[in-house]
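From the methods appendix. Each design record in this collection lists the tokenized structure first, followed by the designed amino acid sequence. Records were kept in a plain field format so they could be parsed without special tools. The example shown here is representative of the layout used throughout.

RECORD:
FOLD TOKENS (389 positions):
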């Protein structure tokens, strides 16, 4: 969905405020009153309500308000009714497409976002010469009021996922309250998945300067929250698509890709640790009561094979499964892994035979340490990737 500015009015506007709604009949009139009163005449603003055909008639109330009201400061109010589409992100995009302001503010309609903060965001957008201003709950001075512990935990978890997996630096990328200059999104193709369009802008607006200002988020007192399992699932889909987008761009995110592959490698390593431990324990203590060194060697062989398969297909996403290439990779993988295996055997022998440490603990420590070298060697030589990539 390529975002294009739609010139609906010959008269230009300096500011567009986008307010998506769904079943907000209890809030919309008061929200429009306060937002329009907060905007100074110099803002030359328009307010665009985008409603997903609310069963409670939110759009009717907003339309009636727009017909009867003409704010003294010249603020124009328009209502867009979407009958065939649903979703917060796509509603926001519909509002942006219909808007004409040079600057755009996006906010919720349930008073969790205080309208008074709009002026502060616009001042910051102007004086700091940045492209995006995010009203943040997590910078100094920001706060959350009225959320239970579970909701705070979900929000923090979603924030950490976005920061770690997408390489986003700001503290509140999940904010739904933000302002930006129109040119920032001029060439962005939006997927509009999920409920946090800011996340997509932050990932795709390369080079944009972002500032955060604090605000107090207050949970709604009327209406119902839109957070449910489908919203969480959409968020996961959105993060995954944005992660894939980051991988496909020319600049990419080297640190994100490296850490992602390291994370996958060590996840595979953890599964290999389990295979190694179970097979070694099976042969060493259950079935044949082999000498622990022999049992460990058998466990290593099994884990090497399972690790190779998973790393080839998942960690390094190598889909070339031709017999010759795969065999060469397997031999190389085993050769380098054998270095770690030799280290593992030596450490197991040292810890068990000399230090009299338990076999289970010795096995865990030796496999964990050996896996670090395995990742670097196999990344560079087996799968022919730069170490830092």
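DESIGN:
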């Amino acid at each position: 969905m390529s975002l294009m500015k739609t010139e609906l009015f010959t008269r230009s506007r300096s500011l567009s405020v986008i307010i998506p709604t769904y079943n907000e009949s209890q809030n919309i009139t008061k929200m429009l009153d306060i937002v329009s009163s907060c905007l100074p005449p110099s803002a030359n603003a328009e307010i665009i309500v985008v409603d997903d055909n609310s069963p409670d008639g939110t759009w009717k109330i907003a339309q009636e308000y727009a017909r009867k009201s003409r704010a003294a400061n010249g603020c124009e109010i328009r209502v867009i009714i979407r009958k065939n589409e649903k979703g917060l992100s796509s509603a926001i995009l519909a509002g942006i497409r219909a808007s004409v302001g040079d600057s755009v503010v996006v906010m919720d309609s349930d008073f969790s976002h205080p309208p008074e903060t709009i002026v502060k965001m616009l001042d910051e957008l102007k004086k700091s010469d940045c492209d995006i201003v995010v009203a943040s709950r997590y910078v100094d001075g920001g706060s959350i009021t009225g959320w239970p512990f579970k909701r705070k935990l979900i929000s923090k978890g979603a924030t950490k996922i976005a920061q770690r997996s997408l390489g986003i630096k700001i503290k509140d990328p999940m904010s739904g309250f933000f302002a930006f200059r129109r040119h920032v999104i001029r060439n962005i193709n939006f997927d509009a998945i999920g409920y946090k369009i800011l996340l997509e802008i932050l990932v795709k607006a390369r080079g944009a300067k972002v500032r955060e200002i604090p605000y107090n988020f207050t949970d709604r007192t009327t209406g119902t929250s839109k957070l449910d399992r489908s919203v969480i699932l959409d968020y996961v889909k959105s993060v995954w698509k944005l992660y894939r987008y980051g991988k496909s761009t020319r600049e990419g995110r080297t640190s994100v890709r490296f850490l992602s592959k390291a994370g996958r490698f060590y996840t595979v390593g953890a599964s290999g640790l389990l295979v190694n431990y179970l097979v070694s324990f099976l042969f060493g203590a259950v079935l044949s009561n082999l000498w622990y060194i022999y049992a460990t060697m058998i466990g290593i062989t099994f884990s090497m094979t399972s690790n190779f398969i998973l790393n080839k297909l998942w960690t390094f996403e190598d889909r070339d499964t031709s017999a010759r290439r795969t065999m060469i990779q397997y031999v190389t993988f085993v050769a380098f892994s054998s270095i770690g295996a030799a280290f593992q055997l030596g450490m197991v022998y040292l810890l068990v035979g000399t230090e009299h440490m338990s076999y289970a603990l010795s096995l865990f420590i030796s496999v964990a340490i050996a896996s670090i070298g395995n990742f670097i060697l196999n990344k560079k030589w087996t799968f022919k990737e730069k170490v830092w990539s």
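APPENDIX NOTE: Residues 254-286 form the longest helix (33 residues).
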